[in-house]
Amino acid sequence: MNNKQQKTPFRLKLEGITKAFPGVLANDQVSFAIKAGEIHALLGENGAGKSTLVKMIYGIMLPDSGSIFWNGEKIHIKNPKEARSLGIGMVFQHFSLFEAMSVLENIALGMDNKLSKKQLEAKVYEVMDTYGLSLEPSRIVSTLGVGERQRIEIVRALLLNPKLLIMDEPTSVLTPQEVEQLFATLRQLAKNGCSILYISHKLHEIKALCDGATILRGGKIVGECDPKKETSKSMAEMMIGASLQAINKSTIKDFGEIALEVKNLSLAGVGDFGVSLKNISFNVRHGEIFGIAGVAGNGQNELQSALGGEVVLKDQAAIKLNEFLIGNMSANDRRKKGLCAVPEERHGHAAVPDFNLKDNAILTARDRQNMTKLGMISAKHAKDFTKQVIDEFNVMTTGSAAIAGSLSGGNLQKFIMGREIMQVPDVLVVSQPTWGVDAGAAAAIHQALIDLAAGGAAIIIISQDLDELLELCDAIAVINEGNLSEPKNIGQVSIEEIGLLMGGVHGQNSEQLTPNSEVIAS
Amino acid sequence: MQLKLEKKLQPSKIMLFATPILAVLLTMVLGAIIFSLLGYDGLGAVREIFLTPILNSLKWQDLAVKAAPLIIIGIGLSIGFRANVWNIGAEGQYIVGGLAATGVALLTHEMSGWWLLPLMAIAGMAGGMAWVFIPALLRTKLKVSEILTTLMLTYVAVQLLNFLIFGPWKSPTSYGQPQTVLFNDFQILPYIIKGTIVQAGAPIAVLIALIAWVLMSKSVFGFQVKTVGSAPNAARYGGFSENKTIWITLLIGGSLAGLAGMLEVAGPFNRMVPQFPTGYGFTAIIVAFLGRLHPIGVLVAGIVLAITFVGGEVAQTTIGLPNAAVGLFQAMMLFLLLAGDVLVRYNIKRVRRAS
After folding, report:
1. Nearest chain A Cα to B215, which residue?
2. How many domains does chain A fold into?
3. Do β-strands A324-325 and A73-75 pair in parallel, antiparallel, or remain unpaired?
4. CA nearest neighbour of B239 among A347, A363, A338
5. CB distance A343–B237 less than 8 Å?
């Protein structure tokens, strides 16, 4: 240890942290350090060991070996409560909120010290004022969008005056304006001396926000860099350990006939918090990729269900697939006619986690791939198709008998996308095709979608990731509170315009309003 | 010291098979200890309950008779359980199935012909289905838990049974005994093996197990049931209707329980009596779980539970074990199985301080 370090010890320093799980070495001799007030990125593909590492910092897991130093002092963090008392806060990728309770109740539940409702409310307002966060404490969580839910988690963490805030993939569900706002909050926190450990694989965000970055691959540290001096490409290559292929997209496009025509699709929301779809109309031609942007919880799931056939409509004419009116058809019948779908949630929706890959192939491909005869399933056909998907889409797995739940998120997503794409649908409706997926897998999925469209399929991508939509789509529309905006061709629309539509601002009013949190929350 | 359960990545395949066997073996060991402590001949009790029915070939026919209804009902329940449909009122469906078959037998008492038994079987299945119709309707329309409704309807079925045989169906020649007339020769199941008491129920049980095996492992329907049970959202996405699955699995469970009721009333009983509800419908729940909800497993588990019934009777006469002892052994088996499952699916970790 040199003298300089003793004078100003690192806020957090890890030395030789190792953690093994049955079958995998999740972290192998990981060492890095964060200074006070530094925004430090932890960069890596899915399965690189980022989550395991931060879980140990936050006391959810204990390292097998290695040491953690806090302000120069060696510590053992036995549980999250201890981490919090040291001043370590964390905002998880998956929120732990009680849907039926109010914002304030949820915050109160996360507090280690019990405060009265009044005291707590005062503190919440104080934190929100300091960092420009807007939230209505009495709102019930289930009525809130993802961005607002994240703000609850942030407020909850900030109430503890953290010295280190861990943010796990925080922007995957935010509008550009919300991202900007989050960054402003984080920068101000850092200015006040709070260190931030920022986990992401969105490279341009890291470039914009972070002072330093540590790159993990396969549980090991493969590099440290100053993100401001690197290019996104160079960081991505460090992250995946290979050179990244640029997406191949032909610029000359010749669209065919209308493949999918949605006309005045309306659907009442289910339950108290379901979003109603209101007179949604759009056309997608053969060979076209149509993007639907929007903040989570504005009817995306409902639209996905209505298009995919999980919800059967009364109005047969609301959806027309080629020459067929399919509005009142079941998901299965729609698939037979040529419309395949991939919902957003991988586990338990697009795939059955307890089933092996072969059975997950049967789940949607059984009819189009002739796996059934007289109500019986041909295991051989299913296996052959599964193997094709695994090979074609480079799914890292032990084979068709592997349990879906044991695959990493990116690999399972590649399998699911492959399963649908290899059925060569006329129309493919996908939600969040690369949610929580690493850069390598995302690129492969994007390329596969583009190739499918080039082959003449119409593709609808419902995504909260604007970059993804702008990169892939030929036309884009925005869904807000169950209304779909007028579709615009990519190239004729600015990010700001889309962002405002996502916030629910339409038409001429948009010029008078600035994109701030009030608009987005409304 | 704190203990923590951690889900295993992939539970050992061997242990999944071995747990039911271990549960049975452990039941024997614990049973021997408990009954010794209670002052009985513990080892003798275990020997009589678990071994005599297997070793004494005279008892095999008893096993076949007892196992048949357990297997038939257990198969039906296991299909429902696979879909997370918890019909625990098979006893009621079994009773109503028996009553429906009895009704047909009484109406056709003066007739003869081979078609009487098939007609009674159809009536039995229809009776069982009628008894799950209400729970199925309430579950699919109003989301009322079938656990409650099926169980409650069991008690209604018992009252219905008593009403009928104490009232309109009471035999005029029974000297006031609450029972129906004896069925005629065409209404009683034939003996399959000459010189034994094994009737058509046993081969039917085996046949049903085989059909169910093919259905559950190879058919789209079996796939649908497993998908709905494992991930309802994925099932909807895959094009399977949850409500349809609830209806079909409940109707299968009800019809098989009803069929078992018909086979019992037209078999060992030959008439409807107040002692008809013997608890097969409840024991079949243990059979279904001990058999890992797999048709062939249920076949084996049905025989194991039949062994405890037959052995219990033996132990009652030879070493004076109370009748309730059988229930205790059966319950212990289920308990140890479920406990064993936890150990197979989870690792128990001691939460210790970091070093």
Report:
1. A376
2. 2
3. unpaired
4. A363
5. yes
Assess if residue A334 is contained within a domain: yes
Mean pLDDT of B72-86: 97
Report CB contact under 8 Å: B354, A353.
Answer: no
User: Which of B12, B221, B237, B352 would you mutate first to test chain A, the one with the most A CBs within 10 A?
Assistant: B237
Closest chain B C-alpha to A78 CA, distance in angstroms: 7
Q: Do B9 and A343 touch (CB under 8 A)?
A: no
Instruction: Name the token pair of A215.
Output: 């790159």
Enumerate helices (H) and strands (E) in chain A, giving the number of each: 19, 23
Judge whether B349 is closer than 8 Å to chain A, CB to CB.
Answer: no
Distance CA A48, CA B205 (A): 53
pLDDT value of residue A182:
86
Residue A287 shares a structural domain with residue A180: no
Domain boundary, last residue among A240, A271, A303: A240
Reported ipTM: the value is 0.86
Across the range A8-18, mean pLDDT stands at 90
Q: Based on the domain organization, do A386 and A509 belong to the same domain?
A: yes
Residue A160 has pLDDT above 50, yes or no: yes
> Chain A within 8 Å of B102 (Cβ-Cβ)?
no
Quote the pLDDT of residue A499: 72
A200 and A337 in one domain?
A: no
Sole residue written with tokens 């923590």: B4
Contacts of residue B245 in chain A, CB cutoff 8 Å? none
Q: Is A14 helix (H, G, I), strand (E, B) or coil?
A: strand
pLDDT at B354 over 60: no
Whichever domain contains A316, its CATH number is 3.40.50.300
The chain B residue lying nearest A24, using CA atoms, is: B9
Could you tell me the residue range of the domain that residue A487 belongs to?
Answer: 258-521
A270 and A199 in a common domain: no
Q: Three-state SS across A371-434?
A: CEECCEECHHHHHHHHHHHHHHCCCCCCCCCCEHHHCCHHHHHHHHHHHHHCCCCCEEEEECCC
Q: From CA A415, how far away is CA B316, in angstroms rounded?
A: 60
Contacting residues for B316 by C-beta, under 8 A, at least 6 apart: B322, B323
Q: How far apart are CA B235 and CA A285, in angstroms?
A: 30
Residue A72, in any domain of the structure:
yes
B10 vs A403: CB contact, 8 Å cut-off?
yes
CATH assignment of the domain containing B162? 1.10.3470
Residues 6+ apart with CB under 8 A from A5: A72
Question: Reduced to 3 states, what is the DSSP secondary structure of residue A260?
Answer: strand
- Are A352 and B10 within 8 A, CB to CB? no
The answer as to whether A181 is a domain residue is yes
Q: How many CA atoms lie within 13 A of B223 on its CB side?
A: 27
Q: What is the pLDDT of residue A314?
A: 92
Single-letter amino acid, residue A117: K
Q: Residue A163: its pLDDT value, please?
A: 92
Kindly report, residue by residue over B128-177, the tens digit of the pLDDT. Answer: 999 999 999 999 999 999 999 999 999 999 999 999 999 899 988 878 88
Give the pLDDT confidence of B250-275 residue by residue, as tens digits. 999 999 999 999 999 999 999 999 99
> A492 to chain B, minimum CA–CA distance in Å?
35
Binding-face residues of A in 324-343 toward B, CB within 8 A: 330-333, 335, 341, 343
Instruction: Look at A375 and B221 and tell me if their CB atoms are within 8 Å.
Output: yes
Interface test with B, best of A302, A352, A372, A419 (most B CBs within 10 A): A352
Interface contact flag, B223 A403, Cβ < 8 Å: no
Measured between beta carbons, the chain A residues lying within 8 angstroms of B233 are 343, 345, 348-349
Residues A376, B218: C-beta atoms closer than 8 Å: yes
Domain boundary among A184, A214, A240: A240
A117 contact B CB<8A: no
Chain A residues with CB-CB distance to B226 below 8 A: 355
Structural domains in chain B (count): 1
